[in-house]
Design a protein that fits this description.
The chain has 509 residues and is an alpha/beta fold. The protein has 2 domains: 302 residues, FAD/NAD(P)-binding domain (3-Layer(bba) Sandwich), CATH 3.50.50; 132 residues, Cholesterol Oxidase, domain 2. The protein contains 12 helices and 24 strands. The chain is globular. It holds the Pfam family GMC_oxred_C. This is Choline dehydrogenase.
Length: 509
């Protein structure tokens, strides 16, 4: 089956999916279960075989740009006055192939907020079956968990953690933070070993889990790697396929954008779907005037860094292993808006003892909203990403509260006994002003951007797509990935993005 054609000629696909990441790989697998449906998946990065991913991609302790499979995006300087890396995976499996492997669900309160916006069909009770469908885990209670899904989800045991991570959990408990055994069960709040889609140190991305060798042999599924898509092709308001960066037209009855929060929004804009004034300024004909890129938001990450006692040199795997999931004083009922993670994503040469770690403070519910716009019409140009980090006083206060909690845990036995000293922000940074300055100097993206094309009801002025990802006012065009999540959730979004693809595949096809 040929995968390209000129206008008006050649084969047509029933569904063409742009992007083979956390959502796109799921859709390709699920939609091609129907042998009568012809599915084409286009991925901008390499399409490795399921058992042929390079070590840097497969190794769960290598993340982000260190995998060598990143888009290389940087943000605008924004409020903090400097750009930060905006890591996104460029490989079959997408960002599920380069992230920390956390497999943690959103909370019922997160979906209740979506319902309060008028978004139907996405309550926790309505999506729990899809969380269970994706999951293959031996842990937890049957009513919460799936046993036979494509994605292996494994609960780390306490004995699998590093000495630092064990001491972190115990010190948190000494501060009154309960230990929990299942962050995806009835009692997620507390201190726990991480739940991860990692098996024997291998990060099982969606390109491995959903697009296994059996799925890839389906005659009605074609997967092409190293293909950059320029834009969606339209006849009037109907999507008819895509135009590749080399000018090739690929025709399809339906186009699904699963290129991620940055990629899908940029594709929509290049296709003439977005704010009309912005498109006209770039000479892009307007197909649909929609607020693409106007509600972008990302969770934030700050590293409280410590030098550890030298006897801990080398005890660094798993790199990410233990979590405190809790609520700040700013959290709404049911929210858990702080992640504290003891992790070994730390260059030991920066420690005078040769050993060290960080307590990464994740602020999960930022109120600061950014934008994504185009720098130009060329698909090789990175979009302009302004996360507008720390623009609100509430965001700064939440993060500082998280830093103070991290410090209290670090000052508590047994963690205190294995710490030599605090490297960052450092013992002299004690006031809120000191901490705010330190945060602005070194804050990073958590790598969880969402909402560049959010779901919403017909009367939601922010909404770009409906509850099943259909783009407003257009036919044959859908978006299914993190860009459609309408606001931040209390967890890393990867598992929820996989769930969303399962949910839409179940309801829409």
């Amino acid at each position: 089956m040929s995968s390209s054609s000129s206008e008006g000629a050649g084969p047509r696909y029933d569904v063409l999916i742009v992007g083979g990441g956390s959502a796109g790989a799921v859709l390709a697998a699920r939609l091609s279960e129907d042998p009568q449906r012809r599915v084409l998946l286009l991925e901008a990065g390499p399409a490795y075989p399921p058992d042929g991913y390079p070590d840097k991609v497969a190794d769960s302790d290598v993340v982000g740009g260190f995998t060598g499979h990143d888009w290389g995006y940087m943000t605008e300087p924004g409020v903090i006055g400097r750009p930060v890396a905006a890591f996104r995976g460029k490989v079959l499996g997408g960002s599920s192939a380069v992230n920390g492997g956390a497999a943690v669900r959103a909370l019922p309160a997160d979906f209740a907020r979506w319902a309060d916006r008028g978004l139907g069909g996405w309550t926790f009770e309505e999506v729990l079956p899809d969380y269970r469908t994706l999951e293959n885990t031996p842990s937890g209670e049957d009513r919460w968990h799936g046993r036979s899904g494509p994605l292996p989800v494994r609960q780390l045991g306490y004995d699998e953690l590093t000495p630092v991570q064990q001491a972190f959990i115990d010190a948190a408990a000494a501060n009154g933070i309960v230990k929990t055994s299942d962050v995806n069960g009835a009692s997620p709040e507390g201190a726990a070993a991480f739940t991860k889609n990692v098996v024997d140190g291998i990060r099982i991305n969606t390109g491995m889990a959903y697009l296994d060798s059996g799925v890839r042999r389906r005659p009605n599924l074609e997967i092409r790697g190293d293909v950059l898509v320029d834009r969606v092709a339209f006849t009037g308001s109907r999507a008819t396929g895509v135009v590749l960066a080399d000018g090739t037209v690929v025709q399809a009855a339906e186009v699904v954008l699963s290129a991620g929060t940055y990629g899908s929004a940029a594709l929509l804009l290049r296709s003439g779907v977005g704010p009309s004034a912005d498109l006209q300024a770039l000479g892009i004909p307007v197909v649909a005037d929609l607020p693409v890129g106007k509600s972008l938001v990302d969770q934030l990450f700050y590293y409280v860094a410590y030098a550890a006692r030298p006897e801990l040199i080398g005890a660094v795997a798993p790199a990410v292993g233990s979590l405190v999931w809790t609520a700040s004083s700013h959290a709404d009922p049911g929210e858990l808006d702080l992640h504290l993670i003891a992790q070994h994503t730390f260059d030991p040469s920066q420690s005078p003892t040769g050993a060290g770690f960080v307590i990464a403070v994740g602020m999960m519910h930022p109120s600061s909203t950014g934008t994504l716009t185009l720098a130009g019409r060329d698909p090789d140009l990175a979009p302009r990403i302004d996360l507008n980090m720390l623009a609100t006083a509430e965001d700064r206060a939440r993060l500082i509260e998280g830093i103070r909690l991290a410090r209290r845990i670090a000052a508590t036995s047994p963690l205190a006994e294995i710490i030599d000293n605090e490297l960052s922000p450092g013992a002299t940074a004690t006031s809120d002003a000191d901490l705010e300055g330190a945060v602005k100097a070194t804050i990073e993206s958590y790598g969880h951007p969402i909402a560049s094309a959010p779901m919403g009801p017909d009367d939601d002025p922010r909404a770009v797509v409906d509850r099943l990802g259909n783009v407003r006012g257009l036919t044959g065009l859908r978006v299914v990935d993190a860009s459609i999540l309408p606001d931040p959730i209390s967890a890393a979004p990867n598992l929820t993005v996989i769930m969303a693809a399962e949910h839409i595949a179940r309801l829409a096809y």
